[in-house]
């Protein structure tokens, strides 16, 4: 099976560029719709953050250090380095008696362009707190300290924290841990390659918490879902896709992007989808800025989660020239139809 065209970039009346990829939608009964090849193996990237946070909660570390629901949300976030995000991560580290220097995620400027420009004008230097993965790393440090493991190597693949995370990913994807390829993410923590369809399965199990999971794991899932849905502004930020989607469908979906064109979404059980719904997307060329948001918003529209008036500034996405004139648009080519038997 080959990737399918999921979005077109149209300038004037001519298709200028295309985005191909793989998409699958599943519910408790099986595959609802499928495009491209959902068996394609690719990296979870930051879409795996809820599963990287489960062992931290399940171990008792979150409660031991008094982490709030907002701080649990930060453990699952790909935040944009706004003041609210930086202060929350700083507070998480203070609760475990550590500081920014103990993080191993590296430094990058805030994703939120307004904050980035403010810092440049003020000649402020970004720190690891501004890294979009700093909340996840603070939670990993808390878990390491709770189990009395080495704090200076918490991000290495062989560390007990990372071995627990790999086992968690294995449990939710249904793939043996020793069959999951592991590499390093942009934040230096291990990340995992699994089929797109397995990613969808993991998100469905995250929201429905089947009884095949042990009680502590199910409780951790409930806490993570609650935190992410309740605080969408923490999961991304003022201009990030996860936050925009969850604010457009408040209390109904859980959205988590991953770098290089990955997007996972779970629709909480409702009248239309009583067993819940999970969506997994991989844009083949790794586009995060044009193809992914256009496709994601349109998929949710076609599934009845969003209305036609929701996020129409994202999908279709206008293309403007240097003067601000609209000269084209990025349009979704997704046409969801029932999967073949």
* Mean pLDDT across residues: 96
Q: In whole angstroms, how far apart are the ends?
A: 16 Å
- The gross shape turns out to be globular
What is the gyration radius calculated from CA atoms?
Answer: 20 Å
Q: The biggest beta sheet, please?
A: 8 strands, antiparallel
- Give unreliable regions as ranges: none
Amount of helix = 25-40%
Taken in chain order, the helices and strands follow as: EEEEHHHHHHHEEHHHHEEEHEE
Label the structural class: alpha+beta
- Tally of extended strands? 11
Number of helices: 12
* Content of β-strand: 15-25%
Features:
eight-stranded antiparallel sheet; three-stranded antiparallel sheet; globular; 341 residues
Characterization of this structure:
The protein has 341 residues and is an alpha+beta fold. 36% of the residues lie in helices and 21% in strands. It is built from twelve helices and eleven strands. The protein has helices at 49-58, 61-64, 69-75, 83-95, 113-121, 134-146, 160-173, 196-208, 215-230, 232-235, 241-248, 291-302, and strands at 4-11, 14-27, 30-35, 41-43, 182-184, 190-195, 253-258, 262-267, 277-283, 317-320, 326-332. Strands 1, 2, 3, 7, 8, 9, 10 and 11 form an eight-stranded antiparallel beta sheet that branches. Strand 2 and strand 3 (30-35) form a beta hairpin. The protein is globular and about 60 Å long. It starts with a strand and ends in a 9-residue tail after the last strand.
């Amino acid at each position: 099976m080959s990737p399918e065209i999921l979005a077109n970039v149209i300038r004037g009346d001519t298709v200028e560029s295309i985005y191909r990829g793989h998409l699958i939608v599943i519910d408790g009964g099986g595959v609802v719709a499928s495009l491209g090849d959902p068996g394609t193996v690719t990296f979870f990237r930051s879409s795996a953050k809820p599963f990287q946070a489960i062992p931290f909660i399940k171990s008792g570390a979150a409660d031991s250090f008094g982490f709030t629901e907002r701080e649990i949300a930060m453990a699952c976030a790909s935040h944009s380095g706004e003041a609210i995000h930086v202060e929350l991560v700083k507070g998480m580290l203070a609760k475990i008696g550590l500081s920014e220097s103990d993080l191993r995620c590296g430094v990058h400027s805030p994703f939120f362009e307004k904050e980035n420009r403010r810092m440049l004008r003020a000649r402020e230097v970004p720190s690891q707190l501004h890294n979009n993965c700093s909340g996840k790393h603070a939670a990993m440090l808390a878990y390491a300290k709770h189990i009395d493991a080495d704090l200076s190597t918490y991000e290495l693949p062989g560390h007990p924290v990372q071995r627990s995370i790999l086992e968690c990913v294995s449990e939710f994807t249904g793939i043996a841990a020793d069959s999951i390829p592991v590499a390093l993410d942009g934040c230096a923590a291990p990340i995992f390659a699994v089929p797109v369809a397995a990613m969808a399965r993991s998100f469905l199990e995250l929201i429905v918490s089947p009884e095949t999971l042990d009680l502590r794991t199910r409780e951790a899932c409930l806490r993570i879902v609650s935190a992410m849905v309740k605080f969408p502004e923490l999961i991304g930020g003022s201009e990030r896709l996860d936050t925009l989607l969850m604010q457009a469908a408040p209390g109904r979906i859980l959205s988590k992007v991953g770098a290089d064109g990955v997007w996972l979404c779970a629709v909480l059980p409702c009248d239309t989808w009583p067993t819940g719904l999970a969506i997994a997307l991989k844009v083949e060329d790794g586009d995060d800025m044009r193809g992914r948001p256009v496709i994601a918003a349109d998929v949710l529209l076609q599934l009845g989660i969003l209305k036609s008036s929701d996020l129409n500034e994202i999908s279709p996405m206008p293309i403007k020239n240097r003067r601000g004139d609209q000269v084209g648009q990025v349009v979704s080519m997704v046409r969801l139809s029932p999967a073949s038997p």
